[in-house]
Description:
By secondary structure, this protein is an alpha+beta fold. The longest helix is centred in the middle third of the chain and has 12 residues. Pfam families: Spo0M.
Amino acid sequence: MSIFKKVFASIGIGAAAVDTKLEKDTLTAGEEVWGEVEIKGGSTEQKIDEIYLSLYTTFIKEVDDKKFTDTALIDRFRLTESFTINPNQTKIVPFSFKLPDDTPITAGKTKIWISTGLDIKNAVDPTDKDFIKVLPNPVMNAVFQAVSNLGFRLHEAECEEASYRLRRRLPIIQQFEFVPVSGPFKGRLDELELVFFPASGGAMDLIMQVDRRARGLGGFLAEALEMDETNVRITVSPADMPNMQQKISSVIQRFS
Length: 256
């Protein structure tokens, strides 16, 4: 390789291209993701230091009372050791990885995607971006169905920066906000907010924020002082699924 081709390669001219192909793009957290990365060599020989897959989501961040959308890294997966791709060569790298249990689901404003990158020293690293749809697991589905049967409708779902009290592996939480449109809690609650955290054995730790409707002057003052919200933490498991509606209803009844 001439010195000019070396220089061109180092600044990204005639560089390798990358394309990731997923076996399927609709998944559940905890499921195995299968696919392959196709690397096509450019007009010059290049050393690829590594191939990596990064799993990202969007979240709402607040700074100085201003909200904006930011990007959070959920996990990162390294696929290969370093190798050299020759001019016009095509290399296929198969992969599989487990979608983390705490991956947010695709709902509301939340987007999830896999970004593929080649790490090339002193070069403009080529990347590829593939959106995926993440579905709720069976326990989450049972909770959502129970809440719907109780007359609540999903109003908003988004990821936001987690407080230190709620922060776990990720610096974000996904919050689901429901409003009562019918049933026993219409007129009694303003909203019901849910946050899920994975637990062992397929269970989920569920935080429920029950926002009671203000009544009269005392209720208005309580609402103004944010004293009308009650945070409840329970654990729901696959064993609860047949009676999930009764379990969720009894909790809301106690605090509404």
